[in-house]
Amino acid sequence: MNARLEDPTITADPVVRGVLAATIAIAALGMLLLARAALGGGVDHVTVRVDNQAGLAIQVDAVDSGGDRVGLGEAGGRSPTTFQEVPDVGRRWTLVASYGGREVHRETLARTELAARGWTVTIPAGATGELERAGFR
Predict the structure, then answer these.
(1) Nearest-angstrom CA–CA distance, 4 and 6
(2) DSSP readout, 33-82?
(3) What would the pLDDT profile of 12-46 be if each residue is shown by its tens digit?
(4) Three-state secondary-structure class, residue 17
(5) Residue-wise pLDDT tens digits, 40-76
């Protein structure tokens, strides 16, 4: 009978080492991103007011120059609605109003022009006129 008392050579599996290295790298990246967000590296936000003069409640979205869409929410018919904490989508804003998935109004403005208007967009009264005549309420 042979009893070995010396320490056997320990070798790590290369796959286990790779998984461990990737896990550490991902965790470090996540911590850096969280630290950046906590220190103010995030997106600026604005308050947008929509003066919906149309008779129907509409969905309002902001579209940036790359085509990415941010849903602001629903603006009631014939009423102003304020949307807070809207991400600043950049130098050009395209505001799209839709009813039931059908676009009823689109307006593209420079951020400076929108700011000069007090971040207020007006949806004209006739924007949903055709839908209202068709009986939508």
Answers:
(1) 6
(2) HHHHHHTT-S--EEEEEEEE-SSS-EEEEEE-TTS-EEEEEEE-TTEEEE
(3) 678 888 888 899 999 998 888 887 767 765 568 99
(4) helix
(5) 655 689 999 999 999 899 999 999 988 999 999 999 9
Q: Which two tokens stand for residue 5?
A: 């008392």
Integer Cα distance of 81 and 71 in angstroms: 14
Question: What is the structure's pLDDT at 124?
Answer: 93
User: Do 49 and 28 reside in the same domain of the chain?
Assistant: no
Neighbouring residues of 104: CB distance < 8 A, sequence distance ≥ 6:
54, 58, 97, 98, 123, 127, 128, 131
For the chain, what is the domain count?
A: 2
Whether the model clears a pTM of 0.85, i.e. scores above it, the answer is no
Q: Which H or E element spans position 87?
A: strand 79-87
The answer to whether residue 1 is domain-embedded is no
**Residue 107, H or E segment:** strand 102-110
